[in-house]
Design brief:
The protein is of the alpha/beta class and 185 residues long. The protein has a single domain, classed as Vaccinia Virus protein VP39 (Rossmann fold, 3-Layer(aba) Sandwich). 41% of the residues lie in helices and 19% in strands. The chain has a 6-stranded mixed sheet, sandwiched between helices. Helix 3 packs parallel to helix 4. The radius of gyration is 16 Å and the shape is globular. The structure holds calcium ion. Calcium ion binds next to loops.
Length: 185
């Protein structure tokens, strides 16, 4: 379902991965991806194209204090550990530069309320799966039963985020959609 990301063309997504993403993917991440590809819930992990964007953000912001909510295969956790400087480390007190959220969608808004307060001004939050397998733009009767509850939560979340004055956002249609938030005050 989501192994092709949001692009409806398998060929195009394959092209992007093979031409742009895999050549730069660190070796340990390739191994995690290979291990989780055979798992039946493989599509829940962070997609490598989204991972590439996250690596870029971590480097550009010089993030040191990082937090992850919802660790599925550890792909993004390992990515962060490989990317942030050696004196930076994942922590769990306040003042974060970067927070990645890929937990239960029904609680995304609750996490957001807590995480915004833990974030430094100009800190970044990345939310995964914010296009929910493309279902956000489909009419409900066309959405498979298994996606319905998550879809309702994600729709509500996306709407709330776009009007939250504390953050500026960028919805990046990578993987299953990631929303990048920067705390403005
Ligand atoms: Ca995910």
């Amino acid at each position: 379902m989501a192994q092709n990301g949001l692009l409806q063309s398998d060929e195009l997504y394959k092209y992007i991965l093979e031409t742009n993403v895999y050549p730069q993917e660190p070796e340990p991440l390739k191994e995690i991806r290979a291990l989780t590809a055979s798992h039946q819930l493989f599509f829940m992990g962070t997609s490598p194209d989204a991972g590439q964007m996250i690596e870029m953000l971590l480097k550009l912001t010089g993030a040191k204090k990082t937090l992850e909510l919802g660790v599925y295969t550890g792909y993004s956790l390992l990515l962060t550990a490989l990317t942030i400087p050696e004196d930076g480390k994942p922590e769990n007190k306040g003042g974060f530069d970067y927070v990645y959220v890929d937990a239960d969608k029904i609680n995304y808004l609750n996490y957001h309320e807590k995480v915004v307060k833990l974030l430094k001004v100009n800190g970044i939050i990345v939310y995964d799966n914010t296009l929910w397998y493309g279902s956000v733009a489909k009419s409900e009767d066309l959405v498979p039963e298994v996606l319905k509850q998550g879809r309702t939560s994600v729709l509500q979340f996306n709407k709330a985020l776009a009007t939250d004055p504390r953050v500026k956002i960028s919805m990046a249609p990578l993987g299953d959609g990631i929303t990048i938030c920067r705390r403005v005050y």
